[in-house]
Amino acid sequence: MYSEKVMDHFTNPRNVGEIENASGVGTVGNAKCGDIMRIYLDIDDDGIIKDVKFKTFGCGAAVATSSMATELVKGKNVQQALEVTNKAVMEALDGLPPVKVHCSLLAEEAIHAALWDYAQKKGIKIEGLEKPPQDIGEIVEEEDY
Ligand code: FES
User: Which pLDDT score is estimated for 38?
Assistant: First the structure.
């Protein structure tokens, strides 16, 4: 049911933890399944993501997608990080079962929430970034469950 990469990132997740005094922190939940994800970003003066950590209270697919998402945004600038979609994360994981696609949205939205927090703290605007919802259950289609 799950690809080897999903199993690898689930059993051996990368970048688990917290960053003290992070440049941006984003927390997103899905009230429908009760899962929550938090992403911490450490961004330098040039807007490069130097470090990223995550904590996920959620299902295996949510753990694997957050792990892969952190790997994909590390070393990127904020604009590039914004372009890391849940589709890109799923492709990097060699796919997810259809009923688990919504879990990958949690990772995308948590990164957006952390970028949003960073932009608010810095008083800057990141082009293309809109305020992310706190509960993605509102934007996930019923048939995704
Ligand atoms: Fe909720 Fe996977 S079931 S994030």
Answer: 97
